[in-house]
Amino acid sequence: MSTNLHHYHLLSLALSCRKITAHVTNPTSSSIVAMASSSEPESHNFWDAKAASRVGEKLGYRLREIGIIVVEIDLPQELSHPVHQHVMILPLFDLVRCAGISGAGTEKLGIGFGRISPKSVIGCASSNSC
Q1: What is the reported pTM?
Q2: Cα–Cα distance measured from residue 94 to residue 20, given in angstroms and rounded to the nearest whole number
């Protein structure tokens, strides 16, 4: 059992074929402190890497707004997702990183914040924080 689990705010993803939702919970109360979804503001039939990048950008902005600079990935949950979805969520993690948010646990997923080039991520090339 990990002793550092929940020392940081916990970032969890809910993935379906139509929507991706990311939420960050407080480590002590388990209440949601920030959330972003591919269904806002417009609804799409299916999500892809572009939708994931928009969710990451929104979530990163919201986390910075409330002063959260480090999140921990819900590793057991993320490892339960199909491997093909790991590739599609890379832009989400990278855009959160572009907002200045560090991610604990991403190295265990084999993705890490910043593994892909910021210029390859939609919307990140214009960001000064990348």
Answers
A1: 0.74
A2: 15
Looking at the predicted structure, is the pLDDT value of residue 34 above 90?
Answer: yes
CB of 96 closer than 8 Å to CB of 63: yes
DSSP string, the chain: --SSTTSSEEEEEEE-SS-EEEEEE-TTT--EEEEEETTSSS--SS--HHHHHHHHHHHHHHHHHTT--EEEE-HHHHHTS-HHHHHHHHHHHHHHHHTT-EEETHHHHT--TT-S-GGGSTTTTT-TT-
CB 84 within 8 A of CB 47: no
Measured distance CA(26)–CA(107) in Å, rounded? 22
Structure tokens at 100: 């200045």
Tell me the residue length of the chain: 130
At residue 130, does pLDDT exceed 70? no
